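Board notes (copied after class):
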Amino acid sequence: MSHPDMENCAYVAMPGPLLGEKICTFIVAEENAKMILESMNNFLLNDQKIAKFKLLEPLELLDALPLANVGKVNKKQLWEIIAGKIEQERNYGKR
């Protein structure tokens, strides 16, 4: 959350090829921010001294995080977003 262009973020598990599961990061950027995966990972490596294996990939940008009725981030809905994208990619490859 300390990246200057980040307003909010959330993480959900998604299927991964190597260990069976990996993390998908959803980010809400500040208005007019031009944050991209490379910028965020450079910030984490150089400024925050995060290990390379902890870098963000994939990274999904959203206008707002979906909220549940109680005001918490709706991680089920985030999981459905990434699961839908994975399914689209699988179906695209079958053409």
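Comment from the instructor: The longest strand covers residues 6-16. The longest helix spans residues 75-93.
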